[in-house]
Write a structure and sequence with these properties.
This protein is an alpha/beta fold. The chain has 9 helices and 9 strands. It has a domain of about 130 residues: P-loop containing nucleotide triphosphate hydrolases (Rossmann fold). The protein is about 35% helix and about 25% strand. It is a peripheral membrane protein.
């Protein structure tokens, strides 16, 4: 059974169609990318996956459950790092990890999560004093402290400098090795090409193309995923 099933998903806001008939499945252990520019429908799609918004048409299933009806049950099995995630500036790293672990019935050991994601030396540091890369590392750790089966990562590296971006990529590589199923939302094509097993290229709320990065690059006669995306957009 697929871990995530999205079938003919539609979501509108007034007269604006944000997502228009999007369909895809994500098998267990895959890192699946949703890529495209701002306004392509990426964030709305993952908000429906997380149960934060209800579809106007189509269906979504995560671990066999409807997120809009079983959001509380899925919250124990799904982690998320969203684009606007933040913590109070004075909250310390260790306090945040301990607090978030308390939200779950069977969390991972938050101390081990600190060590795994290179946060142990920051345990007593306040969120407001962290660098951009350190904040992203913490937010990723918080998304994983519930020991989720699925994790959604929305624009994980936006605003990070090149060094912090590469460090975050390394963390996602470790996540992949752990067998967690992930949906990675990004408008950085190089990021998706490097990290994702498969990607769906979104344009105007629809899927323009879907496949492995290598297949999409080959299909477009391109040399990179960014070039392949631009080829699709210009069609």
């Amino acid at each position: 059974m697929a871990t995530i099933e999205v079938n003919a998903l539609t979501k509108t806001y007034g007269e604006m169609v944000a997502v228009d008939g999007v369909s895809f499945t994500v098998p267990p252990g895959e890192i699946f990318g949703l890529i495209g520019p701002n306004g392509a429908g990426k964030t709305t799609t993952v908000e429906c996956i997380l149960g934060l918004r209800s579809p106007d048409g189509g269906s979504v299933r995560v671990l066999g459950l409807d997120p809009s009806r079983k959001r509380r049950a899925l919250a124990q099995r799904v982690g998320a790092q969203l684009q606007e995630s933040a913590l109070p500036d004075r909250m310390k790293v260790g306090e945040a990890m301990r607090l978030f672990a308390a939200f779950y019935a069977r969390p991972a050991d938050w101390r081990q999560v600190l060590r795994r994601w290179g946060l142990e030396h920051l345990r007593g540091k306040a969120f407001g004093d962290l660098s951009g890369g350190q904040r992203q590392r913490l937010l990723l750790g918080l998304a994983l402290v519930g020991d989720p089966e699925v994790v959604v990562l929305d624009e994980l590296t936006t605003g990070l400098d090149p060094v912090a971006r590469r460090e975050t990529w390394a963390l996602i590589g470790e996540l992949k090795e752990s067998g967690v199923t992930a949906v990675l939302v990004s408008h950085f094509m190089d990021e998706a090409e490097h990290l994702c097993d498969r990607v769906a290229m979104l344009r105007g709320g629809r899927i323009a193309a879907m496949g492995t990065p290598a297949d999409l690059i080959s299909r477009a006669g391109a040399t990179s995923l960014e070039e392949a995306y631009l080829t699709e957009v210009e069609r």
